[in-house]
Amino acid sequence: MERIVLTFLVALGFVPALVQQASAQADPLPSWNDGAAKKSIIEFVAKVREKGGPGFVPPMERIAVFDNDGTLWAEQPFYFQGLFVFDHVRALAPQRPEWKDKQPFKAVIENDMKTVAALGLHGLVELVIATHAGMTTEEFERTVKDWVATARHPKFNRPYTDLVFQPMLELLAFLRANDFKTFIVSGGGVEFVRTFSEKVYGIPPEQVVGSSIVTKFEVRDGRPVLVREPKLDFIDDGEGKPVGINKFIGRRPIAAFGNSDGDFQMLEWVTAGTGPRFGLIVHHDDGEREFAYDRASAAGKLDRGLDEAPKRGWTVVSMKKDWKRVFSFETK
Amino acid sequence: MERIVLTFLVALGFVPALVQQASAQADPLPSWNDGAAKKSIIEFVAKVREKGGPGFVPPMERIAVFDNDGTLWAEQPFYFQGLFVFDHVRALAPQRPEWKDKQPFKAVIENDMKTVAALGLHGLVELVIATHAGMTTEEFERTVKDWVATARHPKFNRPYTDLVFQPMLELLAFLRANDFKTFIVSGGGVEFVRTFSEKVYGIPPEQVVGSSIVTKFEVRDGRPVLVREPKLDFIDDGEGKPVGINKFIGRRPIAAFGNSDGDFQMLEWVTAGTGPRFGLIVHHDDGEREFAYDRASAAGKLDRGLDEAPKRGWTVVSMKKDWKRVFSFETK
Questions:
Q1: How many C-alpha atoms does B7 have within 13 Å on its Cβ side?
Q2: Are strands A63-66 and B223-234 parallel, antiparallel or unpaired?
Q3: pLDDT tens sequence across A113-162
Q4: How far apart are CA B325 and CA A221, in angstroms?
Q5: Per-window interface: A 260-319 vs B, CB < 8 A
Q6: Cβ of A251 under 8 Å from any chain B Cβ?
Q7: Among residues B49, B6, B67, B13, which one has the least CA distance to residue B317?
Q8: Hey, which of A69, A224, A250, B214 would disulfide with B269, CB 3.0 to 4.6 Å?
Q9: Strand order across the beta sheet in which B208-220 lies
Q10: How far is B113 from chain A (nearest CA, A)?
Q11: Is the full-model pTM beyond 0.80?
């Protein structure tokens, strides 16, 4: 009887994913090896869900925040948005002869990646400002979408959106099936990430927090548009992440996921709240399947986080040991 | 058979509100009188829902934005957040003797409401900045909650949160039952509105956009906090509203609801998009049940909107004629 009713409810689309999943007794995180990291996730979610238990959190307060670069998708040889901007600078260069002798444009045009990599996130933001000012938000969106659809990663020769981490996609789905609301909190440009977040991660634009430039309302030929100004609005990195979360989300999440020291204060602030808290750092230690880097990397430097994670009770994920698969396209 | 299954589904909690409602054939907007305004809302929602129809909008894109002051709750004799700040200035005055001779503090302390009212939204924001700087976001939240719990409106002698418009609560619920995601886009302070938006409107903090001041991350006695700085971050009013929507929500809503010229550009931008669009202005013409004001008001001035609404196809709601009840506490 129960099975018949359940089948009927499923057919009608009335059964949340979790019920279906519980009914099938499937592993919600099939790309995660059994071990301390996977166990800590499963136990945290169980605690938060347990009605009447000491760690129960009402669904409305189950907010989970994820860094993007290096946490949900790869970030080497450099932040993908950086590679997008570099391609854009090179494409525009013939119309902008003054860039030939001016840094950081010169380095980008000459493909001098050492100089370019040293720009860091802040230098990258400056470059974004310079190359896209004057565009409407709609023009910018089209430019990003065109690039995402055609550009290929130099190592994997695949679209950048293929380089999302399969175990993290499963984690996002697992949390959502347990009534978590998942947000991206990225150092990258909010308008860049929003162009693919829904399709790639199932995260709608309104659940993306990121760095931003100032936009201005204008009526052009009777049509209202928003124009990108050559002015920084907000850098959502480091101490900016808790600030951005407070500004955009307006309440303290109960779980935070990152991979670099740019995520440190986000994890610190999230896990300092009362009740059950969860902090997790993805450690890039798999040079074979992805890239191995941490303390000395230009993109995604992880130093303080690695030192302090144990005493702060944060889970450190070894991509090498904890993940069965890194990318969905792996065959083995 | 169908009825039995439906009853079973309802009992299990699996049936969305809309199905229950459709089954009961109830009026979703009982506090609205029949007329052009109510009809325009019902028809817009029906068009957007009609699968395969020319106006169908996928649920994820059904974003509706609401101004707060004067649209969802009253805003006379002055913006309620203004009255909160004035109370706060008066409470702090004994510790700040320098305010006695300094505008706008002097006017607030002496209850010179003419001078104070002339401050407008921008002057109010300056006052907010001055009075709450140095507080952590948690301290500010407690201060607002205490005020909301105890302060009383001068005309109605009720808590300010009683002065929400019953027809607008029904409209919010009706849209949500039809898979709209409802957002507040307020000229008021985002952290002020978020303290009560979930309880009063069913709108969670992460769906509130508003004016903001800069906050700074600090570790105080080993505890991470966010501190309010004496610096304006963003004014979410007029041309700022489409900018704020783009920044926080990241996609153009399909419906916008306002009451003043501070909402003009929001309605303009929202209704300029492709596909079905809906703009609505609440006109305060009921001096008996609420307040009658428009073109000359200090708070909630409505001039250009009143002139241009007809040619732009925006619905103008007469509170007097279109609303059976204004507040839930009315007995007749």
A1: 4
A2: unpaired
A3: 888 888 777 777 778 888 889 999 999 999 999 999 999 999 999 999 99
A4: 42
A5: 265, 268-269, 272
A6: yes
A7: B67
A8: A224
A9: B223-234, B208-220, B181-189, B63-66, B255-258, B278-283, B315-318
A10: 31
A11: yes
